[in-house]
Design goal:
nine-stranded mixed sheet, 296 residues, alpha/beta, globular
């Protein structure tokens, strides 16, 4: 965890200091790097998406690290006119300034891939060729609550990697199969190498679209996405053990959820933790304390 109070500060320097700990495990020099931000909808007064300045700082980081190519890609679940969304959100300006191309994953070439999770009952998943062909795959979510999942972080962000031409808008079949089940299947089938969470300003309340801005001043980076998301929940003072996605992911050995088992560097959670307002009626979507204890 690193402290970053503003998007206008030296974010690339902050990220580079964090990445020192991950360079041996996630080498990017000479590699093709795919960045997957959270780009859902654009509303001028809301903090729905990974901030374009944050994406720009991550691009700068990997340029410094010697990446051969950097691609930003997303398959939004709501808007079909993705290029309009990219431009209106401000992401287009950032990508043009850095000379980085954007790929609409909703219309990317689907690749039939053996489902390694099998939580949904699906034998195969159709993944994006652009995602599968990347040497380094990075999830760049926004720190947000979610009215169905409890929180939407680096794992939930993977919904946008599956082509809409196969799964519909908003990835209907995956919702019918169960959001936690689908997330875990996707993550086990093609696991990102790194997560970098935009927690400078998050969203609390009725996320992922209708919540309110919540300044936190944190950037969270990690190679274990379950640990990253559990840590982000603790920053939001949400109980990660009660989120079905994280409980299920830990059960499937995708990563670590217990705080005592997560090697934590940088700022301590307590230094930046701030209570987020929960989404209305989200209790119905969470595990009870008893269920969480049994699952763990």
């Amino acid at each position: 965890i690193a402290r970053a109070d503003s998007y206008d500060g030296p974010l690339a320097d902050v990220l580079q200091s964090q990445f020192e700990h991950f360079r041996p495990h996630v080498p990017v020099a000479g590699k093709r790097v795919l960045l997957k931000p959270n780009l859902v909808e654009y509303h001028k007064a809301k903090v729905i998406n990974t901030d374009p300045r944050f994406v720009g700082a991550v691009i700068e980081l990997f340029k410094r690290e010697g990446a051969a190519e950097i691609v930003v890609a997303e398959g939004p679940g709501h808007w079909r006119n993705v290029q309009f969304l990219v431009n209106e959100s401000g992401l287009g300006d950032v990508l043009r300034a850095h000379g980085v191309r954007f790929v609409d994953l909703n219309h990317d070439e689907p690749v039939k891939t053996l489902n390694l999770g099998r939580m949904t009952g699906l034998d195969h998943l159709y993944l994006s060729q652009t995602v599968l062909s990347a040497d380094v795959f990075v999830s760049l979510p926004k720190l947000k609550t979610h009215h169905w999942a409890g929180a939407t972080l680096s794992l939930k962000n993977l919904f946008g990697t599956l082509p809409g031409i196969c799964y519909g808008w908003p990835k209907n079949e995956l919702h019918w199969r169960g959001i936690p089940h689908s997330i875990v299947d996707i993550a086990l089938t093609h696991t990102p190498h790194l997560a970098v969470v935009d927690g400078i300003v998050g969203m609390e309340g009725d996320g992922p679209l209708n919540g309110t801005a919540k300044p936190v001043g944190a950037v969270v980076m990690g190679a274990d996405l379950v640990a990253v998301d559990a840590t982000c929940c603790r920053l939001m003072k949400l109980p990660p053990e009660r989120l079905p996605t994280l409980a299920m992911a830990a059960m499937k050995r995708l990563g670590r959820i217990r705080e005592a088992e997560i090697p934590q560097l940088g700022e301590p959670v307590a230094a930046l933790a701030t209570a987020f307002e929960w989404p209305p009626k989200v209790e119905k979507q969470l595990l009870t304390a008893e269920q969480a204890a049994t699952a763990s």
